[in-house]
Design goal:
By secondary structure, this protein is α/β, with parallel strands linked by helices. It has a domain of about 120 residues: 3-Layer(aba) Sandwich (Rossmann fold), CATH 3.40.50.300. It has seven helices and five strands; from the N terminus they run H-H-E-H-E-H-H-E-H-E-E-H. The chain has a five-stranded parallel beta sheet, with helices on both faces. It is globular and about 40 Å long. The relative contact order is 0.21.
Length: about 180
């Protein structure tokens, strides 16, 4: 491991845009970075749709990253439990990582229950609301539904394939650089 201590540097993030900014990275990838935040109850189809969307985007030549409860809880957030505080910290970490991918021009597809408006608002504040695409699946239990989702997918009314195709078509217009 290589460690470097910098003296007098209080906030490191502003220097990264001076090295190579997001627009330059997006130009290299020929796509716009965006964060798709899929939310809904357990079993509502979030992971299925997220995996299908990532696959379809990849097959179409887009650079993507899928963040899901399974891959995040086994690594980045493995030290967190399920208390209210830990759930908030889980979403905060996911939003911070999503922001890092966004700043490199990657399309990040997130699939998390994130049941409260406050959780999703915090994530949107970290990521940036113009790059935060809220997608909502399923409404069949106690859950604070998004006030204005960018897209609502009713998995009890359409197949996973139909949902993926509709979401894909919605996103391609947002991420394509012409």
């Amino acid at each position: 491991m290589f460690a470097l201590k910098l003296k007098g540097l209080e906030h490191i993030h502003p220097i990264f845009d001076q090295i190579l900014n997001r627009k330059e990275k997006e130009g290299l990838l020929k796509q716009k970075g965006i964060v798709v935040w899929m939310t809904g109850l357990s079993g509502s189809g979030k992971s299925t749709i997220a995996k299908g969307l990532e696959s379809q985007l990849h097959q179409s030549g887009y650079v993507t990253k899928l963040l899901d409860g399974d891959n995040v809880r086994s690594g980045l957030c493995k030290n967190l439990g399920f208390s209210q505080e830990d759930r908030i910290e889980n979403i905060r970490r996911i939003a911070e990582v999503s922001r890092l991918f966004l700043d490199t021009g990657v399309i990040t597809v997130n699939s998390f229950i994130s049941p409260t408006l406050a959780n999703r608002e915090m994530a949107g504040d970290i990521i940036g609301h113009k790059d935060f695409i809220k997608e909502f699946t399923g409404i069949h239990a106690k859950f604070e539904a998004p006030v204005e989702p960018s897209l609502e997918i009713n998995t009890d009314q359409e197949s996973a394939e139909e949902s993926v195709n509709r979401l894909f078509n919605h996103l391609v217009r947002l991420v394509s650089i012409t």
